[in-house]
Amino acid sequence: MAKVKEMTRVTESPPPVVIDYTREPIVVVDNLHVIYRVYGGGGGKGTAATALMRILRRQNRPQMKEVHAVRGVSFVAYRGDAIGVIGTNGSGKSTLLKAIAGLLPPARGAVYTQGRPSLLGVNAALMRDLSGERNIILGCLAMGLSPEETRAKYDEIVKFADLKPGFIHYPMSAYSSGMGARLRFAIAAARTHDVLLIDEALATGDAKFRKRSKAKINELRRDAGAVFLVAHNLDQVEETCNRVIWLDEGKIRMDGDPKEVIAAYNEAIGK
Predict the structure, then answer these.
(1) Does residue 196 form part of some domain?
(2) Whole-angstrom distance, CA of residue 243 vs CA of residue 112
(3) Total of domains in the chain
(4) Residue 173 structural domain
(5) DSSP string, 73-99
(6) Is the dihedral of CA 81, 2, 105, 102 positive or negative?
(7) Among 13-17, 144-148, 218-222, where is mean pLDDT lowest?
(8) Which of 23, 28, 147, 161 is the most exposed place for a label (fewest CB within 10 A)?
(9) pLDDT value at position 67?
């Protein structure tokens, strides 16, 4: 990856981006803006048939609204970082992770990553009609593991997911949200990732699973690149991460030590 240069944010009174030249950058987010374009009905009244007639007559055409979800975000993540991303609902946390994963195009700015980012979320693409066993196989193959590596990892994944007896052979549609989340995380953690992005995937896990997942994230930090974690459970973020980014209305409000950032966030929201 090319040498990282000093960057600035397009925000109100933006804090400078501090570059640590002694560490290896693995993700560089440079003045990132993400804008959603939403089409509305224009506020007209009536039935669906009358609405259709208005459109056909080019009257009261649907209006486009822009939602500026991420506004001039810049930071550098280094190899070995576990970064928590916190903020209220609608602050841009999930949007930021999707942009880093390459699933959302920037309206302005850019994201540079060393290696391939992998996004793990509560809606990770497992097949609900297939058994957990089949999903493990397909998930591992989709991540680039060979059939031999998949077979070698299978028992480890099943043990880590800690499903109820026999459920590994049931379709995913029969799983509780917690069981599904544990299996998704277990599959994603079966290989070393350059950049692992975890969006609320651990929120439904119990205390026992959160302890195991924390240990696994620490292992991934040692063996791979960077880990990003979005979670509303701030205790979990503080225990797991060495750095926290606080997003507020799509902008970075604070970036630094987990205890300091979380304390400032709790004070701001009156918690």
Answers:
(1) yes
(2) 19
(3) 1
(4) 78-106+114-268
(5) EEEEEETT-EEEEE-STTSSHHHHHHH
(6) negative
(7) 13-17
(8) 147
(9) 87
